[in-house]
Amino acid sequence: TIDHPSLSHVSSHPSKYRNVSSTFLELSHGQSILLDCGESTFGQLCRSFGCSKATQLAQQGIKIIVISHIHADHHLGLIKFLELRSHEQTCASPLLLICPMQLMEWLVQYSSASGHPNLLSPSVVHFVPLQSLLVGVEITDKVVRQVCDAIGIRPQTVVMEHCFDSHGIVLTHSSGWRIAFSGDGRPSKQLIEAGKGSTLLSH
């Protein structure tokens, strides 16, 4: 089973009642995925589930965070999750961060400037470039395969027409359901083809 509450899709800035972009996918056995991670995504989890469960999700439950493109309203909430994750010592595997290359560079600069040397340690986060998961490309990264096999997910990305290095993603579960996520991309024949038969399309 899967639950997929939208933590909000208000676009480039938050309003009084709606937050910037993030979609929470709750799988079975306490495992979950975030599609984009706008500012105060953790706050939205606290409002939805209470801060105790939200903290547990951030430190252990969320296995994958996908950032569709580099625009700030899609990733400024990420730092909070990495900080919480860096304080957790019992994670069996790092968080998979599927994201643009520019975001990796930005996080390295942030970690250095903010005095959080453990923020990006291999036990906390494992970077996965969006391009490395393009449809038709074999997944050779052992950490990616380990985490994805453990939760029964096969991720595939497609290039989207938006900003540089913008991608949509299709997540196929071993039980048969499939989710296609387009981020802010324009209508895409590639995503339509890759996402055929999807249980849910999120934009």
Quick structural gist:
This protein is α/β, with parallel strands linked by helices and 203 residues long. It has 6 helices and 10 strands.
List strands and helices in order, with pairings:
Blueprint: E1 6-8, E2 22-26, E3 32-35, H1 41-49, H2 51-61, E4 62-66, H3 78-86, E5 95-99, H4 101-114, E6 125-129, H5 142-151, E7 153-159, E8 167-173, E9 178-181, H6 189-194, E10 200-202
Parallel strand pairs: 3-4, 4-5, 5-6, 9-10
Antiparallel strand pairs: 1-2, 2-3, 7-8, 8-9
Helix pairs in contact: 1-2, 2-3
Give the N-to-C terminal Cα separation.
Answer: 21 Å
Helix/strand order: EEEHHEHEHEHEEEHE
The percent of residues in helical segments reads 25-40%
Number of strands: 10
Query: Which overall shape is indicated by the principal axes computed on the Cα atoms?
Result: globular
Q: Which stretches of 5+ consecutive residues score pLDDT under 50?
A: none
Strand order of the largest sheet: 1-2-3-4-5-6
Overall mean pLDDT: 88
What does the main sheet amount to?
6 strands, mixed
Give the assembly state of these chains. single chain
